[in-house]
Write a structure and sequence with these properties.
Elements (H helix, E strand, L loop, with lengths): L9 H11 L8 E2 L6 E2 L10 E2 L2 E2 L10
Antiparallel strand pairs: 1-2, 3-4
Bound molecules: zinc ion.
The site of zinc ion has 8 residues, from loops.
């Protein structure tokens, strides 16, 4: 098992965490069909559309 060679000082540890461990909110885009927010390059969970076509049938279809 790998063992740390030496103690990492608080300054070095905090410097590492300051720049690399930044959390950012996930990007959201508006669905071109229903306008709901969803992740880019993913199917819209509301209507099941991606790239202008139906990818997956969604159970909650209120058009009948
Ligand atoms: Zn949609």
């Amino acid at each position: 098992m790998a063992v740390p060679k030496g103690k990492v000082s608080k300054a070095r540890r905090d410097k590492r965490r300051s720049s690399v461990w930044k959390l950012s909110a996930p990007a959201l885009v508006k669905c071109s069909k229903c306008g709901a927010l969803h992740m880019p390059h993913r199917m819209c969970p509301e209507c099941g559309y991606y790239n202008g076509r139906q990818v997956k049938a969604v159970a909650v279809e209120a058009e009948k």
